[in-house]
Structures are given as C-alpha cells and as structure tokens.
Amino acid sequence: MRTLRHFVLILFLVMLAGCATVQVKDSFSIKGPRYCVDGCAYVSLDSVTRAYNVSSKWNYTDKKVTLSRGGIHAEFYIGSDIVVIDGVSYKLKNPVIVKRNTILLPRDFSESVLADFFMKKQASALPATEKLKAASPYHAIKKIVLDPGHGGKDPGAVSMSGLREKDIVLDIARRIKRYLEAESIEVRLTRSDDTFVSLWRRADIANKYGADFFISIHANAAHSRYARGFEVFYLSEAIDDNARAVAAAENASLKYEDSSFGNTRPSSSLEATLWDIEYSENRRESTELAESITESACGKLGLKNRGQKGANFYVLKGAKMPSVLVEVGFISNTEESELLKDSSYREKIAESIACGIINYKDEYEAAEGFTKQR
Length: 374
Known about the structure:
The protein has 11 helices and 15 strands. By secondary structure, it is an alpha/beta fold.
C-alpha cells in the first residue's frame, strides 16, 4: 500500500512539474489601439501593416485584402473567418470585420500566426483557445459633437410669434454640452454662435474631431398647427410621409450652401465599400441611441412620443459614427412654441436629452461597443 501511495505521489508530482513547464507560446505585440468584439480582441489592419512592414492590396469586387512581404501572401475577406497564407487555410475564432470605417483582424491570430510568417519565425498552428481581455478603454465614449441646426442666414423654422429654430436649438445644445461635460465627456459644437455652417461641413467637423456620436438638434414644424411631440431620426430611407416631410424641411438648408455636399463622397472603391459596411453598423447603433434619447425625453417631459424613424437627412450622410437628428418639439404648435420660449423648459429638454445619451453610453460601453441582438 505504501508503495502504491509513493507511486501515486510521484506520478502527481511529475504531472505537476509537466504542467509547470508548459509555456504559452510568445506572441509579437502589435502597437496601436485594441478593439473588443463579441469577446474577441482585435487590432486594425493599419496596425498590422505597420508592425510587420507589409504591403496591402484591396480587391473591390471580391472585398478581399492581400498582405504581402518577401514573397509571402496572406489573403482574407471582409466578414470571413478564413485566412489563406501561401495556400494554407487558417480558421479564425472570429471573422475579419469593419467597424468605424476600420478593417479589424483578430488580435491573437495577428500577433502569432501572421508574426510567424511576416517576422520570419517558425510557422505554427493557431494558439490554443484562451480568454481575451476586453479592451474597454477603446470602446469608451469620450467625444461627442452636438450640432445646433441652421444658423446665420438660415433661420430654420419660425413660429407665428417670431421664435426662430436656430436660436432655440443653439441654446439647448449649449445646455446639453454642460451636462455631458459634467460626465467627463469632451463635447464640441458645430457652431457656438449665430453663424451659418453648411450641412456637409457639420458631419466633417465630427469626423475630424474623432467623435463617437454625432447629434444634430432641431425644432420641428408642420402645416398642421396641431402636430406636436418629440421624435428622433437616424439616417435611412424615409418610412412614411411624415419622415419625408421632416427630411425635406431640414434639407431645405441646402439652398444656403456655398459648396456641394459631394465633398463628403468616398474617393475610392475601398472607401466606398467600407462606407457601405460602416453605414450598416452605424445605423444599428444610431437606432438604439435614438431610442434611448426618445425614451428619456418623453418620460421626463411628458411629451407625445412620436418614436424613432429613418429619413434621408443630408446633415447625417457624411458622419462616420452613430448619428441622430433630434426634433425637440413643434415650433409650429402654439403650446409647444410657448414652452420652447421658456428657459427653464429648455433646461429640462437639455437634461433629458443628455440623460438619454448617457444612458446609451453606459449600455454601449457595457456591451463593449456592440449593438443589441435584433
């Protein structure tokens, strides 16, 4: 019996020693931001090309990217979990994707297998399944651009009493800015005074600022003086006559433009494809942001909830991030127009919109930058 115990003890120690000496294969660390998607860590294609000094080629028709260096070629497709390196296929744990106009590759694969080839290390199989830490700092909502509609020579809608949309929305945007900054969010206004800013320029400001959200603030108007309520729009084809009418009214600012909205059109086939993919992702996030703002505002203000709708707003077209257009009420409705004149009411509107933004920000960060399952 003692001999058997000694044998078991020795066997246990051997196994323990064996486990202790097994080392996880070292991987090459790619510098640059980390992204977390569905629990998988990603790095950008640009970070990979810089790290391994490889060239990249884009095939627009197939949506294929080829990385090349020293006669070695790695090919992969957007949305696919297969990478082919010199004729050998590798199945990724997660597919190659596009987010925020950036092509992303799984980090573990990029820092191991791609490193083996392009850094001339010995090729090896994909690393064993491991838990990947979420890169939450890269999904934090840090910057928001608020866009007070109209301005300068463009007054926007005007009430029977002379209340101008451009004045109301600028005041509300300034108040929202104060609330968001209190939550340590960097906020920029597309205009901070009564100046005209073209529609294409507004989204361009958000893009160059690196905004996480773009939110355009407006006041509604309708032929019927009985129309009232709060609604939020995201970029899409109009789903009803009301959405088309609102979009037509807000797009009327184009008549004041000194330059074409075409300045924001993609300049290459790659950019156009990424724009299409990113548009689909942004629309999902935009609808959720719109829903959060609507629920907060209508709940706090007791306004009629007109819901979230898609419409073809030029001011949102060039934005490379989730974006919405908020209609805070009907300036053409006598009752709501009188409320909008009241400074304390505008403060409540600002607080409720900011609350909706912050609520979605918290959900977005908790979900590591991803939308709800639909």
